[in-house]
Amino acid sequence: MSLLSLRGVRFAFPGWPPTVEGADLEVAQGAFHCLVGRSGCGKTTLLKLAAGLLHPDAGEVVFRGRRRDAIGTDIGFVFQSPNLLEWQRVIDNVLLPVSLHHRPTAEETAQALQWLEQLGLAAHARKYPRQLSGGQQSRVALARALILRPALLLLDEPFAALDAITREELQRDLLQMCGTLGTTVLFVTHDIAEAVYLADRIDVVEGGRIVQEIAVGLPQRTPATRTSAAFAQACAGVRAALHLEEPVIPAQAGIQDALGARLRGHDGRRVVQ
Ligand SMILES: Nc1ncnc2c1ncn2[C@@H]1O[C@H](COP(=O)(O)OP(=O)(O)OP(=O)(O)O)[C@@H](O)[C@H]1O
């Protein structure tokens, strides 16, 4: 059953042609979807429509069987920038969504500390955001988004500013936490490998609508997933859907062979490129 549906959604910023037009999207309960597409194709706008931050001019956004009119506490949002409150300690940043309603109970504080522990931040709970690395700040933003156990988590390129190693660690943490909580996820990214690693379905966005849905049938994610043939094949499928040229590296050859071919040049001479 769908948790979130966009049906024939159209949206235009005032005075501009539609950014989103004829968008249809179904996200099943517990699913992990990634939206990929070229810059400016409307991914963030679709996410904001899904959140109820923007309202469609035509069509409808249905969440849990009801038309979505406004953002509620059943949705968590993580942006590219962690957007933490600089004057609040880490633990208070995580508890912010709770504090907006009432003074956090001992139980809620214990829950926040447990999230921080799971994300490797137990020792940093009393620090301020400026005393954390970029990756640690992103983890705090993730814990804050999950503290109210939202049914749907929306993420807009949350790891784009991080180095590759930290990004991979956060991808693993995100899968783990959402798996534990049974959270449904809609995740915007430019990074094809990130989408293939995270998603069970990739929705390709073009001209403000979903033009292709790609099921990613990878088994349980492990560190070996990223180097598997199935992973490379899935990435190639998404590249094709985005009309990107394939890299020249032959799929079956080892990296040394591929590098050797590039270094040797057409006539077999060794050349430096
Ligand atoms: N407030 C606004 N007023 C007018 N046009 C806007 C506004 N915000 C976004 N747009 C336009 O809507 C289109 C889609 O923007 P959106 O941010 O959804 O794209 P995106 O796919 O998320 O892009 P990127 O990958 O670069 O973040 C773009 O052409 C953008 O210029």
Largest β sheet strand count, sense and barrel closure: 6 strands, mixed
Alpha-beta content class: alpha/beta
Flag low-confidence runs: 251-273
Number of helices: 9
| Strands ordered across the widest β-sheet | 6-7-8-3-9-10
The average pLDDT value, as a whole number, equals 86
Helix percentage = 25-40%
Order of H and E elements = EEEHEEEHHHHEHEHEEHH
Radius of gyration: 21 Å
Ligand inventory: adenosine-5'-triphosphate
β-sheet strand percentage? 15-25%
How many DSSP-defined strands?
10
Based on Cα principal axes, name the global outline: globular
Q: What is the terminal-to-terminal distance? A: 53 Å
What would you say this structure looks like, in words?
This protein is an alpha/beta fold. 34% of the residues lie in helices and 22% in strands. The protein has nine helices and ten strands. The protein has a six-stranded mixed sheet, sandwiched between helices. A hairpin with a 2-residue loop joins β4 and β5. α5 (134-146) runs parallel beside α6 (164-181) and α7 crosses α8 (229-241). The radius of gyration is 21 Å and the shape is globular. 35% of the residues are buried. Bound molecules: adenosine-5'-triphosphate (ATP). Adenosine-5'-triphosphate (ATP) is lined by residues 13, 16, 19, 37, 39-45.
